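User: Before I run my own analysis I want an independent prediction to cross-check against. Here's the chain; please return only the structure tokens and, at the end, one sentence I can use as a sanity check.
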Amino acid sequence: MAKYTCPQCGEQIETAGIVTVCPQCHADMSAVVEAAGHALRQRAAELIRDDSVTTHEYIVRTRGLTKIYKMGDVEVPALRGVDLDIRRGEYLSIMGPSGSGKSTLFNLVGGLDKPTSGSCYINETDMAQLSAHELAWQRCHTIGYIFQTFNLIPVMTALENVTLPMIFAGMSSDEMLERGRMLLELVGLGGRLHHKPHELSGGQQQRVAVARALANSPAIILADEPTGNLDLHTGKEIIELLKELNVESGVTVISATHDLKMIDVSDRIVHIRDGRIERIDRREDIELEVGTMGGEETAV
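Assistant: Structure tokens:
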């Protein structure tokens, strides 16, 4: 429950949602709510940041990364020797056409698949050399995942979906509930704690997914097409939320995306084609023009 104090009459307001007007004297509460939100984000930044990890400049390094899928006697190369360094606290977007290998690279970095050859280091640990148990521990404590299809458990509430990863991290019930509520407040869903996915809009479901990704204070958030199932306006809100978390908490965000709006918030954009890195652009070297389509803004 959030608590607010009316600046005019001093009324103490306790609510699971957001208030804009004091119910006692009808004073404008927007400034109070905004200040409370800023304080919450600062607290979240402290909780989300994982100070136990190495201070090495690069949080992810790949060396000669290859992945070959076998279909009977046919070999299909998805990655052809990828070398990539990702800095700690960076917002990186991986872009490329369908079949380019970006999702394969995304899965290898996230420990969801193993390379055919080469290495992928997370905090100087070679993911390919980890046992199944070690890999599960690394994924649970180091990486938070956001998927295009949300992947929420339909019979669970928003709070239960967010706290589920905390069970595997060994948190107590009280810690889980406190952190789950804080994270849902952080993404603007303090009033939707007990709603199930079918009772939430697409954008709200993705916000729950963002909160779930932050459950165990990850050093890295992997976002796979996080705006793919959202309308333009809602997708922009999710992008801005991820950037805000990246800046305020220092968490590294790696996104596999087709969404050109991602370019504006990215520090670097990695372009992949035919399983190889075609080029890497820095945001400051890219000129974006904003146009309109159907009355809505688009990046071109």
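Sanity check: Confidence is low (pLDDT under 50) at residues 44-55, 292-300.
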